[in-house]
Amino acid sequence: MTIATETKAWRFALVGTPNSGKTALFNALTGSRQKVANYPGVTVERKAGSFQTVSGHRVDLIDLPGTYSLRGRSPDEEITRDVVLGRLVNEVPPDLLLCVADATNLRVALRLVIELKRAGRPMLLILNMIDIARRRGIAARNQVFTSLIGQGYSGT
Length: 156
Prior knowledge:
Blueprint: E1 10-16, H1 22-30, E2 34-38, E3 45-52, E4 58-63, H2 75-84, E5 96-102, H3 106-118, E6 123-128, H4 130-135, H5 142-149, E7 154-155
Parallel strand pairs: 1-4, 1-5, 5-6, 6-7
Antiparallel strand pairs: 2-3, 3-4
């Protein structure tokens, strides 16, 4: 007789600057099986979906609105900040932040990356568009990220 044990799904949130590729990654991971959910009191939307890891663990994934800083004041930036920092009532903070950064525009992304790291939340840095950056002569070096934020990156 096999006893099934229920395991809690992991909650991951995609966060990054606008047009960094968060939604493309979201669609690739979830197979575009997403639902749109409104946050109470504002018209800003976020996408939510899920996928299973190769080991069979379920991951609930949130695609947050793009922001340049956790200090932003627009409604979408406030939502992103509040989700990242676990400030929304009745919303469990993400277990892991997937910080998507555009490798062709690292100077813009780096501010947010450093703010997210300082927030003390578990984070994985994902550099997107590395192929385009290389064609433009831009090289991202893991050692640089390790010295700046204490960790390297994963690339797409």
